[in-house]
Amino acid sequence: MRKKLIAGNWKMNGSLADNELLCKAILAGLAGDDGSQTTAVAVCTPSAYLSQLKNLLTGSKISLGSQDISSHDKGAFTGEISAAMLKEFGVRYAIVGHSERRQYHGETDTLVALKAKAALAAGITPIVCVGESLAEREAGKTEEVVKRQLAAVIHENGHCISEIVLAYEPVWAIGTGKTATPEMAQAVHSVLRAQLHAASPVAAERVQILYGGSMNAANAVSLLACSDIDGGLIGGAALKAADFLSIVAAAK
Ligand code: PGA
After folding, report:
1. Is 197 exposed, middle or buried (CB count within 10 Å of its CB: 0-12, 13-18, 19+)?
2. Counting atoms of ligand 1 from 1, which one is nearest the CA of 233?
3. 4 Cα to the center of ligand 1, angstroms
4. At 99, which CATH number?
5. Measured in angstroms, how far is the CA atom of residue 204 from the centroid of ligand 1?
6. Domain containing 187: what range?
7. Active-site residue, 98 included
8. What angle do CA 158, 194, 214 make, to 5 degrees?
9. Which of 186, 183, 189, 182 is closest to 165 using CA atoms?
10. What is the pLDDT of residues 158-198, one digit of tens each?
11. Whole-structure pTM over 0.90, yes or no?
């Protein structure tokens, strides 16, 4: 059975003081909990705070993640952060291809695939995000869009595709309070699982497919009960310890 993964995506939120409070509250909530056998927990924080979070999380059950990663190894790429640098801060996961990066930073399917490749080469697990916009869903293009996005990643990383984490995040559900119903999410997850299977039966078995988009304490139980939903990528609800902990509890 695949282990569940609940990953917080803090986006561009936090401060040294707030991060410490949030982290300590989550750690306190998880203390004495042996759920780490079945559920892994991660927080993907702004890069500026990786050093702080490394100190707060070392030795804990919470893994550290970044929200992006450069596709390049090193050199004249102002503002970028390489996989090797992230490794030095104990980063275990890197979100790649989040819809906000695709939308506001022009990231293409190919660039996302190359970022996944850079992460894998450094032993960082990429959390590859795919998802359709509202217009694409209404035009009946959901399957076509997510399959195109995943195909680019498989094309570039075929030999180690079983090492990624995938996140289905319908763009219309992100930060809007509109969640895909469990049936809608499961339908897309099973399409993605089948696509992975065609690439590699091992990958289909192993890859955790997370759901993201207004997942919260109230809807997490029914989403996480779906057979192809292996966890959540949590935005807004990851900024409040109680909400995040309820979602972790729902994954058990
Ligand atoms: P949300 O964000 O939970 O606030 O909708 C999820 C995400 O963007 O990863």
Report:
1. middle
2. 9
3. 18
4. 3.20.20.70
5. 24
6. 4-250
7. yes
8. 100
9. 189
10. 889 999 999 999 999 999 988 899 999 999 999 999 999 99
11. yes
